[in-house]
Amino acid sequence: MASRFFKPSRIVAVALVAAAAIWIFSGSFSSHDEPAAKTAAENPTIPIQKVGVAMATPEKRERSIILSCVTEADHRAMAVARGDGVIIELMVSRGSAVRAGEPIAIVSDEGREAAVKQAEAMLAQRKAEYDANKRLIDQGTAPRNNLPALEASFAAAEAGLAAARAELEKNTIKAPIDGIVDTVPVQVGQAVQIGAQIAEVLDPDPMLAVGAVSEFRRGSLQIGQNANIRFVEGKPVNGTINFVGLSAEAATRTYQVEARMINPDSAIADGVTCEMTIALEPIEAVSVPRSALIFSDAGELGIRIADQDSKARFMPIDIVDDGRSLVWVTGLDGPTRVIVVGQDFVKDGDPVEAVAAAEADAPAAEAEAPAAPAKPPA
C-alpha cells in the first residue's frame, strides 16, 4: 500500500503542484508591491516654498487723467488785402479791440474810383437809350424785337457798376471778427498784393486748453465732462471737454483733446502752458506693488496669489491706474493674499508657506549682508 503511494509518477506530480503554488503565491505579493513603488516614483514629495504675501482688498479708487496742454483761442482770423495797393492808413495797432466789419486799414485807390464813375456814366447812357427806344416801340415806330437787346444792354451796365463799386470797397480792409488785434505785420506806405496779411484778430472768449490723450485713455473721455485747468502760477480754472479727436497723430498715436474755458476779461492768454485734470468715475480696484506683476506662459498680464488651500495660483488682471511703485488693478473679488516675494519661483498648484512680505525679505537681507569681521585675538 505504501509502495503504491510513493510511486515515482505521483511524487513528480506533487512536486509540480507545489512548485506552481509557490510561483503563484510569490507573484501575488510582487503585484501588490509594484504599484506602490510606481506611485512613489511618479509622485515624489513637492517641497513647500516660502513666499512673501501682502493682503489686497478691493476699495473705491478715485481716478483722473492728467494731460499737459497749451491754451489756444477758439476763434482767430486774419484780415487780408482784397486788392492791390499801398497802405495809406492804419486804424489799429497790436492790442486794439475791434468789432467785426470795422475798418482797420485803407489801401490806395489804384483807379477803382474812376472805374466806378465810368460804370455810372455807362449805366446812365444805357438807361437813356432804353427809355428812348422803349417809347418808340410803344408808339409802334420801332420793331418790338429790339426790346430784349435793349434790356440786356441796360442790365449789363447795372452789373458793371455793381462790380466797379465792389472793387472800390476793396480799398477798405475790415475786421473779420470781434476780438483783439494780435499782430499787424504791415506799415503805412507798404505796397501789398491780393491776399497779403494785414492784421490777425483773436477772440479770447472762450479760450481752449488743447492737449493729447493716449489711445488707452481716450475711451474714458466724453464731450461735456468737467476739466480742471491749472496754470503755471497755480490758478485753477474750470472748463468743459468740447472735443475728443477721432484720428490719431501719426507720430505719437495720441488723440487731441480740447476743453473750453470762459474768459470774458481776457485774463487767459493764447499759447500759455497748462495742465488739464479730468476726473473719472471711481472704480473697485486693489493696489499691488508694481514688482508683483508677472506674465503667464500665454503672455497674459496678472499676479500670483496664495489661495485658501495655500497653493500658488495665477490671476489675470487689468490695470486701471498706476503710480511710481503701486498699480491699481481689477480682477480680484475680495481680500486676497498676493505673492510679492518669490512669485517667480513657484507655479500654479505648488504648495506654499505664506508669510508676511517683511518676514520673507528678512532672510534674504541677512544673506546679502556682509559677514562681521572676526575679532582679533586678545
Helical stretch tally? 6
Rounded mean pLDDT score: 83
Count of strand segments: 20
- Beta percentage is 35-45%
Provide the gyration radius in Å: 48 Å
Catalogue the unreliable spans: 28-43, 362-378
Which series of helices and strands comes N to C? HHEEEEEHHEEEEHEEEEEEEEEEEH
Q: Could you state the oligomeric state of the chains shown?
A: single chain
How far do the termini sit from each other? 102 Å
Sheet having the most strands: 6 strands, mixed
Helix content: 25-40%
The backbone outline, from C-alpha atoms, is: elongated
- Main structural class: alpha+beta
What attributes does this structure have?
378 residues; alpha+beta; six-stranded mixed beta sheet; six-stranded antiparallel barrel; 6 helices; 28% helix
Structure description:
This protein is of the alpha+beta class and 378 residues long. It is built from six helices and 20 strands. It has helices at residues 2-5, 8-42, 112-139, 147-169, 215-218, 357-368; strands at 49-56, 59-80, 85-90, 97-98, 103-107, 172-174, 179-183, 191-192, 197-214, 226-231, 236-244, 254-261, 273-289, 294-295, 301-306, 312-316, 318-322, 326-330, 336-341, 352-356. The strands form three sheets. Strands 1, 14, 15, 16, 19 and 20 form a six-stranded mixed sheet that branches. It has a six-stranded antiparallel barrel with strand order 2-9-12-11-10-13. Helix 3 (112-139) runs antiparallel to helix 4 (147-169). The chain is elongated and about 175 Å long. The protein starts with a helix and ends in a 10-residue tail after the last helix. Mean pLDDT is 83; it is low at 28-43 and 362-378.
